[in-house]
Design a protein that fits this description.
This protein is of the alpha+beta class. The chain is built from 5 helices and 6 strands. A 6-stranded antiparallel sheet has the order 1-2-4-5-6-3, with helices on one face. The termini are far apart.
Amino acid sequence: MKIAQSVISLALLFESSTAFVAPSLSNVRGLSTRIFEEEEAATEMRGAQEIAGLTSGVETIFDTESINEAIPHRYPFAFVDKIVEYVPGKKAVGIKMVTKNEEFFNGHFPGRPVMPGVLQVEALAQLAGTICLKMDGADPGSIFFFAGVDGVKWKKPVVPGDALVMEVEILKFNKKFGLVKATGKGFVDGQVAIEVAEMKFALAKG
């Protein structure tokens, strides 16, 4: 019995002692190489050129200057930077690049800047106005005034660094009375940020 206990004790002692044996140099090199490869894979970057190329197929239909010719809004109240899709008199897709230099971020909110929801609605309205003021029956220099807005839902905060991609569709245009109905949505990173079921405008000569 004592011999068996001694044998077991020796076996346990041998096992515990091997845990403190220094690993071979080849094992250390292999381990460090794997760690380096894993870190390199984790920090692999796509690079500016590849990321910039993601929008290479998006064509600018109306740039900032062209939009200025259509609607009267100017800094700090111009909220459409360019239009990338356009069906005359019907639809448009426009982009508002939201930067930390926007005036409204000074007070909305200090320490946590969020683009005011009403200005998101205004941005959609300006996009709709660009469509309308290029339609037949809209006199040069005309202005569209808000007449109503219904079914507004905000889904996601819009913050500095976001690209607010907006889509507006003209539902009805009464040329005789200068009345317009439109609907629109705004997206950030492919997710809905705002949707407006109906916007109403009244056309007035400038």
